[in-house]
């Protein structure tokens, strides 16, 4: 009976509350902010533990009024018990934002690492305080619909990720100084506000991924474009229909680029062709390239006016094509004399095309790379067994004497045996080519 009584008392004990504060904080960190705050009513032991949680998501929509939101934020940021804050997601509305300065100042003091601030209502009048520009602990900064004021001194020594969407800058120098003052910045993403006509100059010795979008502009006049000086860049995405030009400098010959360049085809005048000519000349030094269907279409459209530069360094190419553009691809290959590996992704269905479609230049013109360097070809999209994709398969097998491996994928309605019979009818340029059917 004594043993049973002792066991019953131990079962009634609150052993979780006896755990040390750091361990309880880790447990609360696994909960949502709302759930973590609710634990404050369990007992006096738990009343202020949630203030130690290093991750917080604070949204004005979760509170009955703006004053309630403001009071909660002041309690969290002003509490002497708050330790370092690793991650904060802050959603604000269009009310007076005078509270932003003391809150951001507190975050900087408590060594914030990842900060996300989004204004969901109103205009762009909310200005981020100057203390944000000198946060030595910040690793990731994501801002939406805010204003960045000009700062004479910027120092963000640990910032690796910077994403800015619909941000208003006091002037062009504000953005340029911000980027150039991040010595370890690796990822930069910008979605430009609709009426922004600024030139965006990106100077970074560390940047690897850059995404720039200005496609939703309501401006009818062209605006100055983008200057990109990033020697370590490996991924470039530009979705822009209004910028006049894109200047890329100091690109290494061993660069790897993922390019999504979306420019309108209309108004293809000399000025636009000149800008594309310079852009292609700059990226012609890359070793490994991935281009989207729109970029390929743009390059081909340019080639109808002027010859393409030689992509002499490129050994690997991943290209996405519209089904209707398959027949145009051999023309592009003429500019890739040292291509070794090719991956083709197709958008759309081949049954939408005429079965009589042919691959232009498949007999009279064979690109240099097919004869001397191309060893690996892969069709990422499933084969329908109809033209022009079969024409392209035929084209590679017939004209590639050093091809080592061709990888194909079949649609479910095609039987492997029937498809192999079609392949056997194709004369081989290389007797050692391995054909893999998935």
UniProtKB/TrEMBL annotation:
PROSITE patterns the UniProt entry points to = FBOX
The residues forming a coiled coil are none
By its UniProt entry, which SMART domains does this protein fall under? FBD
A Pfam family assignment: LRR_At5g56370
Residue ranges of every copy of the F-box domain listed in the record: 13-49
What protein name applies here?
FBD domain
């Amino acid at each position: 009976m004594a043993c049973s009584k002792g066991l019953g008392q131990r079962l009634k004990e609150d052993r979780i509350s006896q755990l040390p504060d750091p361990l309880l904080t880790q447990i609360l960190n696994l909960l949502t902010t709302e759930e973590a705050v609710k634990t404050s009513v369990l007992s006096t032991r738990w009343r202020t533990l949630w203030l130690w949680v290093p991750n917080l998501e604070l949204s004005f929509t979760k509170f009955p009024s703006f004053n309630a939101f403001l009071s909660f934020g002041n309690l969290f940021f002003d509490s002497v018990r708050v330790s370092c804050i690793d991650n904060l997601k802050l959603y604000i509305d269009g009310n007076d934002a005078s509270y932003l300065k003391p809150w951001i100042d507190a975050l900087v003091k408590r060594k914030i690492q990842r900060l996300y601030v989004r204004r969901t209502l109103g205009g762009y009048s909310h200005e981020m305080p100057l203390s944000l520009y000198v946060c030595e602990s910040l690793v990731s900064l994501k801002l939406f619909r805010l204003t960045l004021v000009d700062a004479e001194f910027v120092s963000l020594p640990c910032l690796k990720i910077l994403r800015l969407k619909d941000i208003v800058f006091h002037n062009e120098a504000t953005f340029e100084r911000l980027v150039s003052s991040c010595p370890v910045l690796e990822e930069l993403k910008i979605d430009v506000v609709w009426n922004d006509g600024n030139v965006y100059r990106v100077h970074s010795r560390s940047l690897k991924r850059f995404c720039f979008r200005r496609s939703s502009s309501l401006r009818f006049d062209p605006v100055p474009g983008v200057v990109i000086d990033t020697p370590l860049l490996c991924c470039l995405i530009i979705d822009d229909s209004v910028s006049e030009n894109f200047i890329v400098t100091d690109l290494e010959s061993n660069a790897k680029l993922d390019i999504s360049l979306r420019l309108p085809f209309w108004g293809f005048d000399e000025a636009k062709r000149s800008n594309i000519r310079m852009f292609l000349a700059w990226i012609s030094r890359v070793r490994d390239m991935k281009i989207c269907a729109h970029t390929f279409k743009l390059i081909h459209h340019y080639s109808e006016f002027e010859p393409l530069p030689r992509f002499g360094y490129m050994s690997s190419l991943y290209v996405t094509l519209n089904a209707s553009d398959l027949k145009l691809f051999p023309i592009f290959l003429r500019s890739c004399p040292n291509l070794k590996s090719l991956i083709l992704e197709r958008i759309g269905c081949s049954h939408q095309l005429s079965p009589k479609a042919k691959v232009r230049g498949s007999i009279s013109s064979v690109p240099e790379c097919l004869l001397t360097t191309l060893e690996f070809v892969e069709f990422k999209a499933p084969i329908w067994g109809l033209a022009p994709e079969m024409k392209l398969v035929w084209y590679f097998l017939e004209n590639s004497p050093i091809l080592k491996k061709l990888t194909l994928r079949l649609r479910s309605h095609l039987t492997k045996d029937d498809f192999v019979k079609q392949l056997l009818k194709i004369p081989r340029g290389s007797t050692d080519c391995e054909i893999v059917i998935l």
